[in-house]
Design goal:
Number of helices: 12
Order of helices and strands: HHHEEHHEEEEEHEEHEEEEEHHHEEHH
Structural class: alpha+beta
Distance between the termini: 62 Å
Number of strands: 16
Largest sheet: 9 strands, mixed
Radius of gyration: 25 Å
Shape: elongated
Length: 390
C-alpha cells in the first residue's frame, strides 16, 4: 500500500470538546448507546441525589419513570441562602466537574461517573428545579444547550407549580437520536436502588413507574440493618432455611483510610454466595477486600477447631475451600482513596485493605465463636459433612 499522495498534518486533526465530544462519541461516556448506556445515564443523575443524602443534606431520593418517557430524580435537600445553586449549574454545563470527589462518604453508582454534564448533553431536554428559603430556581436545556428563556427566581407562588419545602428535581428525556431505546426497565432500576439502600443504611430511595396502563407502581427501599439485611435477603432468595440472625460487624481502620461492613451466614444450600462492594459499587472481579474476608473466615474457623481439639482441624487447614462452601456474605468497604484495577472498576486493588479485613474478620468471628461454642461446633461439623458428601 503506497503512501504517495497521502498527506496528514495538524490541519487534519479535529478536536472535539464539551457537549460536541459527548454527543459524537457517547459510548466513551456512558458505555454504549443501548440499554446499558441508558441506565448509566439515569444513574449519573441519581448519583448526585444520593450524594446529597450521604452528605447529610437530604433524607430521601425519589425517582419517577414518567408516562411521556422522561425520568424525574428528586431529593429533599435543604437549601441555605436561597434556591440558586452555582455548583449544580456548573455540573450541568462543565464536563470537568464530574460527579464530585470519591471518598468513604460517597457512593460510586456508575463505573465511569462523569456526572450531570453527560446526562444533559445526551438528553433531548433537561430541566432542573431547585427550591429553598422561599425561592425557586428553574432552568431548561435542550441537548446540553440552555434554552432561550430567563431564569425563574422569585417567591413560591402557585402559578410556578408545586414548590413546597426544599430540594432539587432534575427531569430529563434521553435523546432518541442517541439511544437505541429509551425504555427503562422497572425491575433493573429497582434492583440497583435496593442494593444501594442495603449498602447505605441511612438512605431511603423510592422508584415510581407512571407508565403501566393498569396503574402506577411504586417501591420504597430503606434497611435499618444495612448489609445484615442484605445477607438475610440473599439467603431467602436462594430458598435456604430461615435463620434467627446474621453475624455482622462494622469497623473503621485508619491503615486503609476507610471503614468495612461485613455480614455472613452459613446456609444449608451448596455453593458460596459472597458479594463484594467498594464505595457501594459491586466488584464482581473480586479484589483485596474479598481476599481478606476469605482468609479471615478460614483463620477463625481453623483456630476454633484447633483450640477445641476437634479431629477435623488438620483437614480444614488443607481444605480451606470447604469453609466458605454454602456461605452467604456481603463485604462492603468504603475508602477515602479506592484503587480500582481497570477502567470499569470491577476489581479492588488497595493492598492495605486485605490485611485490615483479615484481622477484623478473624477477631470478630473468633469472638462470636467463643460466645456461642455450640453453634460454632455445629458449623464446623456441617463443613466436614459437606466434605464427606463430595
Amino acid at each position: 500500500m503506497s503512501a504517495e499522495g497521502m498527506e496528514y498534518d495538524a490541519a487534519d486533526i479535529k478536536v472535539l470538546e464539551g457537549r460536541e465530544a459527548v454527543r459524537k462519541r457517547p459510548g466513551m461516556y456512558v458505555g454504549s448507546t443501548g440499554e446499558r448506556g441508558l441506565y448509566h445515564l439515569v444513574l449519573d443523575v441519581v448519583d448526585r441525589a444520593v450524594g446529597e443524602v450521604l452528605a447529610g443534606r437530604a433524607g430521601s431520593v425519589d425517582v419517577t419513570l414518567a408516562s411521556d418517557g422522561g425520568v424525574r430524580v428528586a431529593d429533599d435537600g435543604a437549601r441555605v441562602g436561597g434556591a440558586y445553586d452555582p455548583d449544580l449549574e456548573a455540573q450541568l454545563t462543565s464536563l470537568h466537574m464530574g460527579s464530585g470527589p470519591i471518598g468513604r462518604r460517597t457512593a460510586v453508582i456508575t463505573p465511569f461517573g462523569l456526572g450531570l454534564f453527560v446526562a444533559n448533553a445526551l438528553s433531548s431536554r433537561l430541566t432542573v428545579e431547585v427550591r429553598g428559603e422561599g425561592t425557586r430556581w428553574v432552568k431548561e436545556y435542550a441537548r446540553g444547550v440552555e434554552a432561550e428563556q430567563p431564569d425563574t427566581v422569585g417567591p413560591l407562588t402557585g402559578d410556578l407549580g408545586s414548590a413546597t419545602g426544599s430540594g432539587t428535581t432534575i427531569s430529563f428525556w434521553p435523546d432518541t437520536e442517541i439511544f437505541e431505546t429509551t425504555w427503562c426497565s422497572f425491575p433493573v432500576l429497582a434492583e440497583r436502588f435496593r442494593q444501594l439502600a442495603f449498602l447505605n443504611r441511612g438512605l431511603a430511595i423510592s422508584l415510581t413507574d407512571e407508565r403501566p396502563a393498569d396503574g402506577v407502581r411504586r417501591v420504597l427501599y430503606q434497611f435499618p440493618d444495612g448489609v445484615r439485611d442484605f445477607v438475610a435477603a440473599l439467603d431467602a432468595e436462594a430458598g435456604a432455611y430461615p435463620h434467627a440472625d446474621v453475624f455482622g460487624f462494622e469497623r473503621e481502620d485508619a491503615r486503609m483510610a476507610g471503614t468495612m461492613e461485613v455480614a455472613l451466614l452459613w446456609g444449608h444450600s451448596r455453593g458460596a454466595q459472597i458479594r463484594g462492594f467498594a464505595n457501594s459499587l459491586a466488584t464482581p472481579a473480586g479484589g483485596t477486600h474479598l481476599d481478606g474476608f476469605r482468609d479471615g473466615v478460614v483463620a477463625a474457623i481453623t483456630e476454633f477447631a484447633r483450640d477445641r481439639g476437634l479431629p477435623t482441624a488438620s483437614d480444614l487447614d488443607a481444605r480451606a475451600d470447604l469453609i466458605v462452601e454454602s456461605l452467604t456474605a456481603v463485604v462492603s468497604v468504603k475508602l477515602d482513596q479506592p484503587e480500582y484495577l481497570g477502567a470499569t472498576r470491577t476489581l479492588l486493588g488497595n493492598t492495605d485493605v486485605r490485611v485490615c479485613v483479615v484481622e477484623a474478620v478473624r477477631e470478630h468471628l473468633g469472638n462470636w465463636f467463643a460466645e456461642q461454642p455450640e453453634r460454632a461446633a455445629d458449623i464446623v461439623n456441617r463443613i466436614v459433612r459437606g466434605r464427606d458428601q463430595d
